[in-house]
Specification:
It is a single-pass type I membrane protein. By secondary structure, the protein is an alpha+beta fold. Helix 10 runs antiparallel to helix 15. About 35% of the residues are buried. The N terminus is likely disordered. It binds 2-acetamido-2-deoxy-beta-D-glucopyranose (NAG) (12 copies).
């Protein structure tokens, strides 16, 4: 009996001990009312070790607010407030206040009307103190020393994470412009949700695999939420956000050379201004620095492996420096100084009228470029001979350049991205250049008239008349014939059609759907923690939305991420317009780049498949009949009664869900068209599904509503027998 209070005490002690040892040291607190200013006695608040400071640092002719690592030849800035316009005047102050948190006063502003630097979302809680911790984390505490705000957790990192800090999924590091200018530079390191989990790419690119110059893919069971974490001990690892378990480590402090005993190490991972992501170890003895080591870097090899050059230019190395140069036929957009990095180039001739010329081949020569290749994605990839490849680019007005690689012809439009020279390039690059015969940079009118082949000369005028007369009649009869065939066709054939939304259809208003942000859905599903099913389109997670904590099912669509946004919206519109008690209702959606998610009502009693094949619940004939009728009503509605006919194409017990009243509802409808290109692939892969597929569909013939009737028949049989129609064993 006596053990209970003892246990309690132990737990309390552990909690307390945890709190104090972890990060809080109550002896080094910043109290309410403390003020710092760039020119005053205190320009910063230092950590107890004296290695980190938060406050004002010189920035050009004025000052900026940030956190830096002390005692370097020059301070290492690890975080800057408002980095893209950081300058504050020399008479600014930073003040810790009870209600507002940290207030940055610039000049003679009235503190009453200031937004705090650190906006406290729990507005009712008062700040009691703050502290610059030895880890480099600046924190605000309440009375009970629980953290209200911390720079590690609540602020966007700039280009650096420190030991103890995480880069969560969806967040990114942005490189600085230079070592002295900490505003946003040219590179991103993004922790992503999708296939590529961690990717480095040029700023403003989509950071898709073809854009990334460095990427880390970690196979990750269950599509969770991933983060990059740098531990206090210097291990840089990818972690599962929800469990905190390590998936893969990129680097660790094990490789430290010269690890002297009494030294303190501070680890920092920075996306440097040259685009490389590096892990540094700063060594200190007491508070004096004794050197920096680079423990790891993401991109090994030459500097041009990072896409240092801009549009239509390529990177090369000259005396160990990376330089950029425009492709032949291109000129610099802005004439810069000697640093040619990030050079953007444009065509040196005005836009041609390629489209209006009958034979554009004569307008261009194909110039081959030695040892050069580029990245980005070609708009066309076809296997063909090299000569044919060149010819076909000359003819094609969209084509500006080709990469020819082991009998594959890749055609590119402008701008050409991520160009670089490389001795070991296994590709041959050709650039389309104006041949000079027809195109002059200034006048396109004369160019046009000189190229237009004068095929029809005067003495052939009568021939033209005859030709046009005959052709006219032929086309007329042709048109009549086509119309006739069309009418016959219309009468006889059921067309497979799901009407897509018309151009001017207000998408969101029309179907009163809610548009969610990706972050909202991450929050509502607890980081996609609970997977409740997996359909042909991707996994389904449980979540809650709104103040009433309404349960929802969030479906992440994975199969057709490449599909255009408009087609996707058209399909959602079609789904959203359905209203029937035997169909699962769509509540909202989220389109965030390639991430597409749908939010459906949550049905608590699982799927018909669970009920039929897994549960041991007895099912009276009456109940089974009701389920069969429910499904039939849903199918009838999809086929006959809703505005736009929808063929489900995938009716099976797994797609029939049961609500709390045991009403059967059909889910997964309306996507057949989006999925069409992957039909055949899916058919082969998904044996289990094919037993519900109508035979004509399996033979790739055209699909009609009858396909659903077939599938329904199989389901009906399974409801009656309560066993699977085909047992694979
Ligand atoms: C807190 O700081 C004091 C001196 O400033 C030091 O003696 C003490 O060990 C520190 N406590 C912890 C838990 O780090
Ligand atoms: C470094 O430490 C010494 C004593 O340990 C102290 O006198 C000095 O002020 C410290 N310097 C800084 C910049 O914190
Ligand atoms: C430190 O800063 C000065 C002036 O801003 C600069 O000239 C010098 O190169 C910097 N040193 C290092 C090591 O970055
Ligand atoms: C701060 O400096 C600016 C000019 O740099 C001046 O206009 C302003 O009056 C100053 N404010 C205070 C409170 O001194
Ligand atoms: C501090 O802790 C006490 C008791 O644990 C609690 O009653 C109080 O609400 C807490 N205050 C804050 C600001 O969290
Ligand atoms: C990226 O996009 C933003 C917003 O469109 C723009 O302000 C910025 O200049 C772009 N950066 C680069 C490097 O192109
Ligand atoms: C970083 O992630 C780990 C594991 O999920 C967690 O324990 C830790 O609190 C996180 N750190 C911060 C500053 O959020
Ligand atoms: C550590 O060093 C060893 C040998 O020097 C090397 O093989 C290994 O890749 C290094 N590890 C890291 C994470 O840099
Ligand atoms: C480490 O510190 C101890 C005492 O503080 C000292 O005797 C020893 O020489 C130091 N070792 C090194 C490598 O500096
Ligand atoms: C550019 O480089 C040339 C020689 O390579 C040098 O003479 C010139 O001063 C440099 N210009 C600048 C602005 O650095
Ligand atoms: C393009 O090719 C034609 C003949 O093939 C040649 O006469 C012309 O000089 C070439 N133009 C350029 C710019 O290379
Ligand atoms: C090229 O032609 C277009 C229309 O034919 C005209 O608007 C444009 O000004 C022309 N450009 C030049 C450089 O002559």
């Amino acid at each position: 009996m006596a053990s209970t209070p003892a246990l309690l005490l132990l737990v309390l002690l552990m909690l307390f001990a945890n709190e104090t040892t972890a990060e809080t040291n109550h002896t080094h607190l910043i109290s309410i009312g403390s003020v710092i200013s760039p020119t005053g006695t205190h320009a910063s608040w230092a950590s107890r070790s004296g290695l980190f400071a938060f406050g004002f640092y010189p920035h050009g002719n004025s000052y900026a607010v940030g956190i830096w690592l002390l005692n370097q030849p020059n301070h290492t800035i690890v975080w800057t407030h408002n980095r893209d316009s950081p300058s504050v005047p020399s008479n600014s102050t930073l003040r810790l206040t009870k209600e507002g948190g940290l207030l940055l006063l610039q000049g003679n502003e009235d503190p009453e009307f200031l937004t705090p630097l650190y906006y406290l979302y729990q507005a009712k809680v008062e700040v009691a103190s703050a502290s610059m911790l030895d880890s480099g984390n600046f924190v605000l505490y309440d009375k009970n020393f629980s953290m209200l705000w911390s720079s590690f957790h609540n602020s966007m990192p700039s280009d650096t994470i420190l030991g103890g800090q995480n880069l969560t999924s969806g967040a990114k590091l942005v490189s600085s412009v230079s070592q002295s200018d900490h505003s946003s530079g040219h590179f991103w390191l993004r922790s992503q949700f999708d296939y590529v989990h961690l990717a480095a790419c040029r700023v403003n690119s989509t950071c898709e695999p073809e854009d990334a110059y460095w990427a880390k893919n970690t196979y990750f069971e269950g599509y969770g939420y991933l983060q990059l974490s740098l531990s206090i001990e210097g291990s840089l690892c990818l972690q599962d956000y929800s469990s905190g378990s390590e998936l893969e480590c990129l680097a660790s402090s094990k490789n430290l050379t010269d690890k002297s005993k009494n030294a303190t190490f501070i680890y920092r991972a920075t996306l440097d201004e040259d685009g490389n992501f590096r892990l540094y170890a700063h060594q200190f003895k007491g508070n004096t620095s004794s050197g920096v080591q680079t423990l790891w870097k993401a991109v090994e090899g030459d500097k041009c492996q990072v896409p240092l050059c801009g549009l239509n230019s390529y990177c090369f190395i000259k005396s160990d420096k990376a330089m950029c140069q425009c492709y032949p036929g291109f000129i610099r957009i802005k004439s810069g100084g000697n640093d040619t990095r990030f050079l953007d180039c444009e065509q040196n001739h005005s836009k041609d009228n390629c489209e209006s010329i009958e034979d554009p081949t004569t307008m261009y020569n194909m110039t081959s470029l030695k040892d050069i290749y580029w990245g980005g994605s070609p708009y066309l990839v076809v296997p063909m001979e090299m000569e044919t490849c060149k010819k076909s680019c000359q003819k094609d007005c969209d084509c500006r350049a080709v990469l020819y690689k082991s009998s594959i012809c890749e055609k590119y439009k402008l701008p050409l991205l991520y160009g670089r020279s490389s001795k070991d390039a296994s590709t041959t690059a050709f650039l389309k250049m104006p041949s000079g015969i027809v195109l002059s940079p200034t006048s396109n009118e004369t160019a046009l008239s000189s190229t237009k082949p004068s095929l029809f000369v005067d003495d052939k005028r009568s021939l033209i008349m005859i030709l046009s007369f005959t052709l006219g009649w032929i086309s007329f009869f042709g048109l009549v014939f086509v119309l006739y065939i069309f009418i016959i066709y219309r009468r006889q054939v059921h067309r497979y059609a799901i009407l897509s939304a018309s151009e001017n259809l207000g998408f969101v208003e029309e179907c009163s759907l809610r548009s969610f942000s990706f972050d909202e859905l991450v929050k509502s599903t607890g980081g996609f923690a609970e997977e409740i099913g997996r359909g042909s389109f991707g996994a389904v997670y449980r979540g809650t939305i709104g103040d009433s904590n309404r349960m929802v099912a969030v479906r992440r669509l994975e199969k057709f991420v490449d599909e255009g946004e408009r087609e996707f919206q058209a399909e959602i519109t079609a789904i959203a317009r359905t209203h029937h008690k035997n169909l699962v209702k769509l509540i909202g959606f989220c389109i965030d780049g390639s991430r597409k998610l749908l939010v459906f009502e949550y049905l608590s009693n699982g799927s018909l498949a669970d009920l039929l094949f897994k549960s041991h619940m007895t099912m009276a004939w009456k109940e089974r009949l009701k389920i069969a009728l429910d499904v039939a009503r849903g199918v009838l509605y999809l086929h006959e009664e809703c505005d736009v006919r929808i063929i489900h194409c995938n009716i099976k017990p797994q797609n029939i869900l049961m609500d709390e009243m045991w009403t059967a509802k059909i889910s997964d409808f309306g996507f057949a068209r989006l999925l069409k290109p992957s039909y055949s692939r899916m058919k082969k892969m998904d044996d289990k599904r094919s037993r519900y597929l109508a035979p004509e569909w399996q033979k790739d013939e055209s699909v009609s509503v009858k396909a659903d009737v077939y599938s329904f028949g199989v389901v009906l049989l399974e409801i009656a027998c309560r066993r699977s129609s085909i047992d694979m064993n």
